[in-house]
Design brief:
The structure is a single chain. With about 400 residues, the chain is mainly α. It has a single domain, classed as MFS general substrate transporter like domains (Growth Hormone, Chain: A). The chain is about 75% helix and about 0% strand. It is globular. The chain starts with 5 loop residues before the first helix and ends in a 6-residue tail after the last helix.
Length: about 400
C-alpha cells in the first residue's frame, strides 16, 4: 500500500489539532463564564480553584489509562468515541441547579468531563506521530498545540454571546454542540486505506521497541525531563487560561460581554508561538541524525524568557495592556509545550507514544490539581499580582532541569 502523501499526512495532523480545539472549547467554557457562574451559584474563589482541581484530578487518573488504551485500539477508533462522550457531558451542564446544589453538581460534571477528555491529547499526539515523518514532527506538535488555543479563542465570543441571550447554562450546551461538528470531519479524512494503515500501526522510526509498561516508561530519562518541564509550565498556563477572565473583571470591572471581545488575543499569540517554535525546532532537526534529536536549548531559553512576562501582567494599566502581557507569557508557555512534547516523544519507542503523551498530560494535571486551590486562596488573601510573581519564580527550576540535565539523565 502506498504511504500517505504529504497533504494527506498534514490533513490528519490538522484534524488532530481540531480534536484539541474541541476538547479545550468544552473545558474552557467554565473559565470564560466563571465570573457569571461563580456569582450566580455563589461559589468562592477558593471553591472555584477546587473545581479546576477536580477536573485535573480526573484527567490525571484518566490520561495514562487512555494513552495505553489508544496504543492498543488506535486514535482512529478511539478519538470519535471520546469526543462523543465528553461532548455529551459538556452539554449536561445545561441542567445545573441553583446555589448550594449547583456547586456539587458542577463538581460532579467536571470530574466526568476530565475523565472523558483524557484521551484527547494522547490520541492527538499519536496521530501526529504516526502521520508525519520524523523530521516534520516538531512542526506537527507546534501545530497540535494550536488546537488548545483555537478552542480557547472560539469560546469567549460564542459563550459570552450565548450567555447574554439565553443564560450561562445554555452557553455550555451551545459550545458542546459546536464541538460535535468535528466527528464527520474525522470520519471523512480517516476513511482511506492509506490513512487507516498509517493510524492503525506504529511507524518505523529510530526508536523501535515493544510497548513499555507504564512503570518502566515513567522512569525513562526523556520522560522524567518532560515531566519536570510540564510541572513547571502548567501552573502559569492554568492561571492564564482559567483566571484571566476573573482578573480582568476584578481589576477593570468588565462585563461578561466585554470579555467575549477581548479574550481572543492570548490564544492567537499562543498559536503563533507554538507554530513558530515548532518550525524552528523542526528546521534544526533536519540537520541532525534521526537517532539523536537536537536538544532545544536556545529555543527553550527564549521561550522561558517570554513566559516570565506573566510577572509583569499587573503592570498593565488597561485591559488591553494586561492582555498583551498575558499573551506574551502564553506565547512562552505554548512554545515550551510544543518543544518539550516533540523532544520527549522523539526519544521514546513509537509503540509507547500515546502512553508517554498521557504521562505528560498527567504531569500537567498534577500541577493543576496542586496549584488551582492555591491560586484561589492567594487571590482571596493576597492579590493576583502576588500569585503571578510566584508562578514566574516556579517556572525557572523545572525548565532548567529539562534543559540542563542532559549529561546526567541520558
Amino acid at each position: 500500500m502506498p504511504p500517505l502523501t504529504k497533504p494527506q499526512a498534514w490533513t490528519l495532523a490538522i484534524c488532530a489539532t481540531l480534536t484539541m480545539a474541541v476538547s479545550y472549547a468544552d473545558r474552557q467554557a467554565l473559565a470564560v463564564l466563571s465570573p457569571t457562574v461563580t456569582r450566580e451559584l455563589q461559589i468562592s474563589e477558593t471553591a472555584y480553584g477546587w473545581l479546576l482541581s477536580a477536573f485535573s484530578l480526573a484527567y490525571l487518573v484518566g490520561a495514562p489509562l487512555a494513552g495505553r488504551w489508544l496504543d492498543r485500539v488506535g486514535a482512529r477508533r478511539g478519538l470519535p468515541i471520546a469526543v462523543l462522550l465528553w461532548s455529551t457531558i459538556a452539554a449536561a451542564h445545561v441542567f445545573l441547579p441553583g446555589p448550594g446544589a449547583g456547586l456539587w453538581a458542577l463538581l460532579a460534571l467536571r470530574v466526568m468531563l476530565g475523565m472523558a477528555e483524557s484521551p484527547s491529547f494522547p490520541g492527538a499526539s499519536q496521530t501526529v506521530h504516526r502521520a508525519l515523518p520524523p523530521q516534520d514532527r516538531p512542526r506537527g506538535f507546534g501545530v497540535l498545540y494550536v488546537g488548545s488555543s483555537l478552542g480557547a479563542m472560539v469560546v469567549p465570543p460564542v459563550a459570552s454571546a450565548l450567555e447574554h441571550r439565553f443564560g450561562f447554562r445554555f452557553a455550555f450546551l451551545g459550545v458542546a454542540a459546536v464541538g460535535l461538528a468535528w466527528l464527520p470531519i474525522w470520519l471523512w479524512v480517516t476513511r482511506t486505506p492509506a490513512a487507516r494503515e498509517a493510524l492503525d500501526h506504529p511507524p518505523d522510526d529510530a526508536v523501535p521497541a515493544p510497548v513499555l509498561p507504564l512503570r518502566v516508561l515513567v522512569r525513562q530519562p526523556a520522560v522524567l525531563r518532560g515531566v519536570c518541564v510540564a510541572l513547571a509550565v502548567a501552573p502559569m498556563m492554568s492561571y492564564a487560561l482559567n483566571w484571566t477572565p476573573k482578573y480582568l473583571v476584578a481589576t477593570f470591572h468588565l462585563s461578561q460581554q466585554a470579555l467575549g471581545s477581548l479574550l481572543w488575543l492570548p490564544p492567537v499569540v499562543y498559536d503563533i508561538a507554538s507554530i513558530g517554535f515548532g518550525a524552528w525546532q523542526a528546521r534544526r532537526a533536519r540537520h541532525a541524525p534521526l537517532a539523536e534529536p537536537p536538544v532545544p536549548i536556545l529555543p527553550g531559553l527564549v521561550a522561558l524568557t517570554l513566559a516570565l512576562a506573566c510577572a509583569l501582567v499587573p503592570l498593565g494599566e488597561t485591559p488591553w495592556a494586561a492582555l498583551v502581557l498575558t499573551s506574551v507569557a502564553m506565547a512562552g508557555g505554548g512554545a515550551l509545550f510544543a518543544l518539550f512534547t516533540a523532544d520527549t516523544l522523539a526519544r521514546v519507542p513509537s509503540a509507547s507514544v500515546s502512553a508517554t503523551a498521557g504521562l505528560l498530560a498527567s504531569a500537567q494535571a498534577v500541577a493543576y490539581i496542586a496549584v488551582s486551590p492555591l491560586i484561589g486562596y492567594g487571590v482571596e488573601v493576597r492579590s493576583h499580582g502576588f500569585v503571578l510573581s510566584m508562578l514566574a519564580v516556579w517556572l525557572v527550576p523545572g525548565v532548567g532541569v529539562w534543559l540542563g540535565a542532559r549529561k546526567r539523565l541520558t
